[in-house]
Design a protein that fits this description.
Order of helices and strands: EHHEEEHEHEE
Helix content: 25-40%
Strand content: 35-45%
Low-confidence stretches: none
Distance between the termini: 27 Å
Shape: globular
Number of helices: 4
Strand order of the largest sheet: 1-2-3-4-5-7-6
Radius of gyration: 15 Å
Number of strands: 7
Mean pLDDT: 94
Largest sheet: 7 strands, mixed
Length: 147
């Protein structure tokens, strides 16, 4: 079940830390609870108190930017990421908005998910993502607004 999140939580911070190579700081993550940001979380029907994933999208006019999406590693492979993305697509439809995102070049599973949801590659940002040693390129993808 997907619900609007109203505040940053320890569960959200734990998912962020467990899910990303270079997780956002708590301050950055918690700063997204303001106007023009849409923050939604996935809760299992079996464990309604346990957040298992979330996304953060920033809206400017008729464009959404997926700022962050994370599913706890223990819950990955169950369709939660797809469900969160479908929710974002439905939200963007209400505003007749396109959706933009960046994805690590090494994250082929996310790229496949986005491509299956009609996102297309529109560019690449060199050295966009930090790594423990060095940096990694990002692929820029877009899903046009539905008519």
């Amino acid at each position: 079940m997907i619900v609007l999140l109203h505040e940053c939580s320890p569960h959200m911070l734990a998912i962020e830390k467990a899910s990303h190579v270079m997780p956002w700081t708590p301050a950055t993550l918690c700063s997204c609870f303001q106007e023009n940001y849409h923050v939604y979380g996935w809760y299992s029907e079996n464990e309604p108190q346990q957040l298992q994933g979330f996304y953060i999208a920033h809206q400017v006019g008729d464009e959404f930017t997926l700022m962050n999406i994370a599913v706890h590693p223990a819950s990955q492979g169950q369709g939660i990421g797809r469900a969160l993305m479908l929710h974002l697509i439905a939200l963007a439809r209400r505003y007749q908005a396109s959706i933009w995102l960046e994805v690590r070049v090494s994250n082929s599973s996310a790229q496949q998910l986005y491509a299956s949801l009609q996102f297309t590659k529109v560019g690449q940002r060199p050295n966009y993502y930090p790594l423990d040693e060095g940096r990694e390129d990002a692929i820029v993808m877009c899903r046009a607004a539905d008519d």
